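Protein in question reproduced for absentees:

***
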Amino acid sequence: TSGPLDSPVFVSRESGCSVSLFSWSPGASSPVHLHESWTLTAVIQGSFRAEAFDLDSAANGRLVVSREFSG
């Protein structure tokens, strides 16, 4: 399924901080990707599930799930 609709609502030129709203359709998903900054997630309606990954040198450098989040 496709990813979210992204709507930037605020961008600070001085600090580089930004706020964006994402709207996900039921069943939508996103491929594994990096977050190069911190992220805050809030669910207004429905539910949310995310997995965090680490590179596992014991698993030949493959990505392995290190944490799961849901709400």
About this structure: The mean pLDDT is 80. The longest strand covers residues 62-70.
